[in-house]
Specification:
By secondary structure, this protein is an alpha+beta fold. It has four helices and four strands.
Length: 96
């Protein structure tokens, strides 16, 4: 197996490995979108932001390095990510 320099990896928008590994944050837009499409029964026990943070972190870990979104097949919900100056952000949630 050959070691690949971070600069040669497919781009996600992360500045460096520390940027890639920073704590995922939720955007106001993503929270608003999730409140409209995720059934209340799914998140009411924990609260929307707590549930969404856990789901977004879980799915972010599954996103390939060269992609910026993840489609959860079972629910049909797509989680869309981007990087800003502070690290990864869940920028949107939508059906399909």
């Amino acid at each position: 197996m050959e070691e690949i320099a971070y600069d040669e990896m497919p781009g996600t928008g992360a500045i460096d490995l520390n940027h890639q590994m920073a704590k995922l944050r939720l955007s106001v837009t993503a929270i608003n979108q999730a409140s409209k499409i995720i059934p209340i029964e799914v998140w009411k026990q924990r609260g929307l932001c707590t549930w969404l943070q856990a789901a977004a972190e879980h799915f972010f870990a599954l996103v390939p390095a060269d992609k910026s979104d993840y489609l959860h097949i079972k629910s049909g919900v797509r989680y869309m990510y981007e990087f800003d100056q502070n690290g990864p952000v869940l920028k949107g949630v939508r059906i399909g």
